[in-house]
Amino acid sequence: MSEEDLKNLFQDKRVLVTGGTGSIGRVIVERLLAYNPRTVRVLSRDTAKQMDLAVKLGNPSNVRFILGDIRDHERILMACEEVNIIFHAAAFKYVPQGEYNPFEAVQTNVVGTQNLISAALKTPSVTHFIMISTDKAVAPVSAMGASKLLAERLVTSAHYIKGKKDKSFVTVRFGNVIGTSGSVIPIFLESIRRGEAITVTHPDMLRFFMTVSDAVDLTFSAAVLAKGGEIFALKMPVMNIRDLAEVMVERFTNSPLPIFSVGMRAGEKLNEMLITTGEAQSASETDEFFIVIPQIEVGDIKFGHYQYPGARPLASNGYHTQTAKRLSKPEIAALLERAGIA
Q1: What is the pLDDT of residues 12-32, one digit of tens each?
Q2: Which end of the chain is less enclosed by CB atoms within 10 A, N or C?
Q3: According to CATH, what is the number of the domain 3-178+209-235+276-317?
Q4: pTM
């Protein structure tokens, strides 16, 4: 993916970013503006965050803030009018809350995603639809993860039902994005600031981590490379959560703080998976990411001819936290520094 590729894709285009004031969405918006889009529409439910982002961006004339909810089908149809590219970053993403409020996860992640897909199919100008998903969707044990798995399947299925329309529907899978809302790092930082004990759920818990910059790079790469129906996933390193807590205590305080294990929360897994054994059968990889190619072929829709620069058949039977590269404590500290956690 080159800057020229991105310029060709985004310049003079109308782009909609759902969840555009969230941790990932706002960076997508900021990065898009470098390529001179005709308009960036920022859809979210939070007026305060919209105002904050407008001030941060300097109130550019080509950014439009739209107050709305992806659960509202009619509102989404209006938001998509004349749009060319959709980045779908709005989501219900909190695992424990989803266990106690599963229908809320379904309403946002399943119904909301289908609303956007339907609008994209009905809007002639839409050519690219990119949804942000999560490793929680892989072999899910939580309501949130299951709802994101359904969302992934909806996006892939849109490629089958689009007919001859010139549209590409694609998913990107993230792990834990360092420093974003709901991630463990801001929670640890707050405990350190207060001089309180750090709590981890389980001392052996492993998680994939990526920076916000890496996340947006992957999203833009998928937008450029997508042919339709694929899932893109970054080759992320793994952290032990207790190691992360110990590194942060060492890095951000001069006084040792106790670290306690409090037990896993509802819907959590000890280990995560990014690519399943089944998906590995139809996946390709580059040096930076995986590409899961759809396995269902319908009529004239064939996926065997999909080719990507530098890609090769996946050399493993999947990708999960127990076998991926695990970061040492110095490597964790270096990644935090690269992510701007200070």
Answers
A1: 999 999 999 999 999 999 999
A2: C
A3: 3.40.50.720
A4: 0.95
